[in-house]
Every structure is written in structure tokens, then in C-alpha cells.
Amino acid sequence: MSTPFAAWAEQVQADMEVVLDRHLPPASALPTKLHQAMRYAVLGGGKRVRPLLVFAAGTLFDAPRDALERSAAAVEMIHAYSLVHDDMPCMDDDDLRRGKPTVHRQFDEATALLVGDALQSQAFLVLSQGALAPDRKVAMLSQLAHAAGSLGMCGGQAVDLDAVGIALALPELEQMHRLKTGALLRVSVLLGAYAGKALQADEQAALDSYADAIGLAFQVVDDILDATADSATLGKTAGKDAAHNKPTYVSILGLQPSLALAEKLRQDAHHALQPFGEAAIRLRELADLIVQRKA
Amino acid sequence: MSTPFAAWAEQVQADMEVVLDRHLPPASALPTKLHQAMRYAVLGGGKRVRPLLVFAAGTLFDAPRDALERSAAAVEMIHAYSLVHDDMPCMDDDDLRRGKPTVHRQFDEATALLVGDALQSQAFLVLSQGALAPDRKVAMLSQLAHAAGSLGMCGGQAVDLDAVGIALALPELEQMHRLKTGALLRVSVLLGAYAGKALQADEQAALDSYADAIGLAFQVVDDILDATADSATLGKTAGKDAAHNKPTYVSILGLQPSLALAEKLRQDAHHALQPFGEAAIRLRELADLIVQRKA
């Protein structure tokens, strides 16, 4: 008994395997080891939260299918590259990702480094191609570059590195996650929307509020799951925040207040979508999914 | 007694410090350590060969100054990021770059990883901004992404990794360098030209021939210098190809034939520029510089 939302999400997840396969160089292309490793890092799993956001926002603004596929592939490649680099010995030194050996374990460290580098280039390449109007593409490429870089995702990871063993206050923790996870979730929503039309200021503001709320909610729930779930369920090493003495919502607020915060953010996300009415149903359901997920 | 070419090149090199400074986030922006490390990796030295190519090609096609500056900054950021990652322990494990400690030595490995990642994003961000027409920008972003990725620079590095200790034949060595170094040199020429106008097919072909020749020449000369110069002159560790048992033009062809090949490629580059007449003087002189440099 699959709900309409679950059926839609499963379809997007299945489609993304095909879409990502099509937008990655074939495994037979030289250099074959690099291309095999890039495909290993991207294909065959993952919750595809960012592509789901792209498609949900794109549906709201009648975006053409090819532009949504390219946007979804681009954000997922950026996300996958960040995981490959994040797992390396000089960062989190992790052995397990999505239930499989991490890229540097399956291949080697130098290959993992190049896989991440090449996936970032590939994301911009895929987004620069296709039939969308050039001015729309430029806006999307610019937003993606900003979200991925030192004032976005990479910046958040740098703050995270420096936070190990330090007692961050809640506003600092929130700022770190706004960059580290929030920036890419936000740009997923924006790319989906931009693929459909140029946004009015009030539409952009509403989507920003939504994206802010789900971005933070995603991280609060990640912290809750890291503290409460097991590695087999998560498909990655559980309990590593505590093991690495990293500040988390659970360590700062406690478990029950963290659960309450996640629920409040879910409601904030719903509230932000009110101007779009019934048409925003998939975005609302995604907020529910992000807060209520078990892995 | 500076020649007009030398004076022009020195001016571009000096200008690039200002241009790169302007197009990098300030050192005071959060996260400050990451931004300081990004600036350390990019500013204060380097031959700026790629920006020189951008400006020389741009002058030939009357490109606007801001578009040239952005193109030059973008290719130099891609180049700088590749050096930072290349120097890391899992790759070449090098301590010295441009006469200074490498980024992972001056800071730490995790920071070096993020510096490279963030510089790549910044390159695409800088190129996506500015006043150039959107269709031109999209073409340039697409070319840069292709040149940087798995079918360009990253692909060449992957081939290089796998070539250690293997007796590459000359065609394979050439193919590796076409990707590893040639792709980014070629795109430097193309971005400078595209910033001025959409190229005719014959103009594009002529520039491609030129870029192919100087790209290979650059690597042949690099191999010659690695075998013959000292670390102090190079500003990086000399003799490391032989130490790492890497195939080079010198190890395959011998020193004198390598010198003769470099000279032939210089003449090929001049020949390719004939359709552009006297206006291509800076590109010709750059071919001379690349072949006749001592470091």
C-alpha cells in the first residue's frame, strides 16, 4: 500500500539511476578506473533527497523534464563528491557509506581525491548543457557554484573541522549547518524552480524560508539518528559524532528538545509554502519525509 | 632593457595579483582559515602562463577587459587547486611549491583538500558573473568544466597515477599530457578568444593547433627542466620524475631529441598562427617563452 507520495518518490529515485548513468562518462571511457570509481561513488543508492527537492520544486513551476534531470544530476554529483572527500582519512576517515566500502577503501586515496574533483567538474558540465535558455543556465550555474564553495558547503566543512572538541554555542552550530548541508539543499529547491521560470521576489523569499527550515531540520534529524540508530540501518557508521567529540543538536539541546525542534522546523516549512497552495504538496511531503525518516 | 613582450608579460603578472585578490573571498570572511589558505594557494607567485594565454588570445579578438580578467582568474584557480591536491601525501607528497611550503604543510591535509574543492567552485562562480552575454558565458563555463574534468585535467592525472613504474610508449605519454596539462592550456586560449567573439570554425581549428603544440611543448620542457634544473631555480622539487620512476620525454627520447622536439613544437605553434598575421604576436611570443623558459 504505497501512498501517492511514496510512489512518486520511488519513481524519482529509480529515474535518477538512469539519469545519473546517462550524465556520467561511461565506465569504458579512458581513464577507465577513474570513470568506474566515479560511477561507484554516485550510482546504486542514496536517498536522493536533493533530486527529490529539485523535482518537487520543478513540478511547482512547470519546469521542462530535461532541465530538471540536469539540475538533479548536478546537485547529486556535488553531494556525492563531498561525501567521497569527507570520508577520506584526512577528514572523517570512514570505511562505510551507503552500506558499501567508501571510495578510498574500494579503490585508493589518490583515486578518491580525483573522483571528487572530477565529479565537481562534471556537475557544472551537465548543468551547462541542454536546451534551457542561456540566461537561466548562467543563474543556475552561479547559484550552484556559490552553494558548493567556500561561502557554502566547503565553508561549512571547514567550520566543522575546526569545531571538533570545541563547545559551540547553538547559533554557531546552526550557522555551520546552514553552510555545510543547508546551502546545497537550498540550491536544490532553487534550481528546480529556476528551471521552470524566473522567480518573483516573494516566491524566492518563500522558497528560501522553506529551504532554510528543511536544511536545518535535515541536520537536526541527522544528529538524532547518529545518536539513536545503528550503523546497519544508517548504511554508515553511527555514533561517530560522539566518538569524534563533535558538537551536535543532541549534545547541546538533549534528545527530546531536538525532536521538538525538528517538528517545529517541519511546521515552519509547511507554513512557508502557504502562498503556493495545494500545488506545493510534494515539497510539503518532502519536509515530512526529512523529519520523519529513520535513516 | 625589457622587451615589449617582457614588459607586457610583467604587467599581466602584476595585474593578476590584483585580479585574483579581487575575485577571491577576503581573508577576513568566515571561515577565515579556509579563506586564508585559499589565498595562500593562489596569490604571490607562479608564472601565470594560463592567464598570459587568456590575455594574448583575448587581445587578438578584442575581448572586454572584465571578461578576460574573469577568464584568467578562473583558469588560474583551477590550476592552483590542481597543484594543491597534486601535492598532497596521497598524490605526489610534495613539501615545496613556488618556493614556499605546500598548502598541506603550511596548514593541514584536511584544509588542503577543502582549499582545492573550494577553489574549483570559485572558478566557476567567477566565470558565471560579470557583464558578458549569457550565451557566451555558458559556452565558456562548459569548455572550462570539460577541460577540468575526467575527460581533461583530472583524467590526465588519473592516467599519470597509473603510469608510475610502467613503460609508457610515446603516444600514450603524449595522450596523458594532452589531458593533464594540455586541456587547461587549450581552454585558456579558447576562453580568451570566446570572451571577444564567437569563433569561426577555421579560427577555432587554428587556435586548437596552436594550443595543442604549446600544451605538449610545455610538458616536454617541464620534463627537460625536471631532469636538468635544480630545486631552487624551479621553486619546486627537481628530479622527482626519475625518483618516482615516472615516464618522461627525457626518459623515453633522451635529452637532445627532447630539446629538438620542443623546438619543433614551437615552430608548429608559430605556423598555426599564420592566418591571424601580425596581430597574433603575443601568442607567438608566448610559445617562445614556454619553450625557452628556465623554470
Total helical elements of chain A:
15
Q: Name the strands of the widest sheet of chain A in spatial order.
A: 1-2
Q: How far is it from the N-terminal to the C-terminal residue of chain A, by CA? A: 21 Å
Assign the CATH class of chain A: Mainly Alpha
The number of domains of chain A: 1
- What radius of gyration of chain A results from the CA coordinates? 18 Å
As an assembly, this protein is homodimer
CATH 4th-level superfamily of chain A: Farnesyl Diphosphate Synthase
Task: Describe what you observe in this structure.
2 copies of one chain form a homodimer. By secondary structure, the first copy, chain A, is mainly α. Chain A has one domain: Orthogonal Bundle (Farnesyl Diphosphate Synthase). Helices cover 72% and strands 1% of the residues of chain A. In chain A, a hairpin with a 2-residue loop joins strand 1 and strand 2. In chain A, helix 3 packs antiparallel against helix 15. The longest helix of chain A has 28 residues. At the A-B interface, helix 2, helix 4, helix 6, helix 7 and helix 8 of A face helix 2, helix 4, helix 6, helix 7 and helix 8 of B.
List keywords for this structure.
homodimer, 295 residues, mainly alpha, Farnesyl Diphosphate Synthase, two-stranded antiparallel ribbon
Concise overview:
The structure is a homodimer of 295-residue chains. With 295 residues, chain A is mainly α.
